[in-house]
């Protein structure tokens, strides 16, 4: 079991629509620090399965850490989706779920820039967290486009009406309903977004919707560096089923080669570890082999959970789907995809 997995009690289950529920968690006092999160992050839930023992699924936090909310994930049923249907059908207040600590990098770096928020369906979940936080922390203007099948499909409809009423000079909310207007085209969206083209963009939703939005943004010549997209991916590795030694030495059955190895010094959770780092071993695998509790979820470069900083030395990544150019230029890397290029490397997990 991943050492960052914890059992949490579900305090309340809220029916948002016929197809979506919110799960509000109670966080024990001794885990408060572990569950500090940023707007736009997610939790990974363990869902029991008859055939596989369990499956792991990531669900964005719809709550805001800046509004006094308890950590809340919102889950919408997906056709044929085992985990989402199981959670919607079976979880009640008082139930215990196994949950990984917050992760993800779909997080605004500043609250002083105007925001263009685009969501469809359950993509509103992290957008809602960002929206509430931005209204609380800054004075920026915010424009939200939210696309749905029909009026009954709108998640958080009452909350959005209330926020727009309370912040009429800062927040505009535009609902695009397929039942009334058909699917939006890139021309439709470009027309809508034209007056907001200097905003930072945060985008979350199904592939077809996000592709259309990005076409519209391209038409408006909005630079890639201003566009931030959250993508939902299926996990191929189950972090709840990964077993590691709890000692600081590698298990005897897993010897670690030291020939042609770099030396890495890793600062993590207030501790420093100095290890031989074989040239062909990914940093995350090295840390887990030594029983070091490094953060991770997907191990595929998509989630950004294992982000760390190269303080000294040189490394390279095999794949990168999570970090933007600005983060790369500042020395950040993904442990799950990182190999050493120099003989010594210093790494910090923040």
UniProtKB/TrEMBL annotation:
InterPro entries: 2Fe-2S_ferredoxin-like_sf, 2Fe-2S_ferredoxin-type, Beta-grasp_dom_sf, Cbr1-like_FAD-bd_dom, FAD-bd_FR_type, Flavoprot_Pyr_Nucl_cyt_Rdtase, FNR_nucleotide-bd, MRET. Its cofactor is FAD. Keywords: 2Fe-2S, FAD, Flavoprotein, Iron, Iron-sulfur, Metal-binding, Oxidoreductase. SUPFAM superfamilies: 2Fe-2S ferredoxin-like, Ferredoxin reductase-like, C-terminal NADP-linked domain, Riboflavin synthase domain-like. Residues 262-350 form the 2Fe-2S ferredoxin-type domain. Residues 3-109 form the FAD-binding FR-type domain. Signal peptide: none annotated. The keyword rRNA-binding does not apply. CDD domains: fer2, PA_degradation_oxidoreductase_like. This is 2Fe-2S iron-sulfur cluster binding domain-containing protein.
């Amino acid at each position: 079991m991943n050492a960052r997995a914890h059992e949490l009690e579900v305090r309340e289950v809220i029916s948002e629509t016929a197809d979506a529920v919110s799960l509000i968690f109670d966080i024990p006092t001794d885990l408060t620090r572990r569950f500090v999160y940023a707007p736009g992050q997610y939790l990974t839930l363990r869902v029991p399965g008859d055939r596989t023992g369990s499956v792991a699924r990531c669900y964005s936090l719809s709550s805001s850490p800046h509004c006094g909310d308890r950590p809340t994930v919102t889950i919408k049923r997906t056709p044929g989706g085992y985990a989402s249907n199981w959670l919607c059908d079976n979880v009640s207040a008082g139930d215990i779920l196994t949950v990984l600590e917050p992760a993800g990098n779909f997080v605004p770096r500043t609250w002083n820039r105007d925001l263009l928020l685009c969501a469809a369906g359950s993509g509103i979940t992290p957008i809602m967290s960002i929206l509430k936080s931005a209204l609380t922390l800054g004075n920026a203007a915010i424009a939200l486009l939210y696309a749905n099948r029909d009026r009954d499909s709108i998640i958080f409809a009452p909350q959005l009406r209330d926020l727009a009423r309370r912040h009429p000079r800062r927040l505009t909310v535009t609902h695009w309903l397929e039942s009334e207007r058909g699917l939006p085209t890139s021309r439709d969206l470009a027309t809508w977004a034209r007056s907001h083209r200097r905003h930072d963009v945060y985008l979350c939703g199904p592939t077809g919707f996000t592709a259309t939005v990005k076409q519209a943004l391209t038409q408006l010549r909005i630079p890639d560096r201003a566009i931030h997209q959250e993508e939902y991916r299926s996990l191929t590795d189950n972090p709840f089923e990964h077993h590691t030694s709890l000692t600081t030495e590698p298990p005897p059955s897993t010897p670690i080669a030291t020939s042609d190895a770099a030396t890495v010094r890793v600062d993590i959770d207030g501790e420093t570890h100095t290890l031989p780092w074989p040239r062909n071993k990914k940093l995350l695998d090295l840390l887990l082999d030594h029983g070091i509790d490094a953060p991770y979820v997907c191990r595929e470069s998509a989630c950004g959970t294992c982000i760390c900083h190269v303080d000294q030395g040189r490394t390279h990544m095999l794949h990168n789907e999570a970090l933007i150019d600005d983060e790369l230029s500042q020395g950040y890397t993904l442990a799950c995809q990182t190999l050493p290029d120099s003989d010594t490397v210093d790494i910090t997990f923040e």
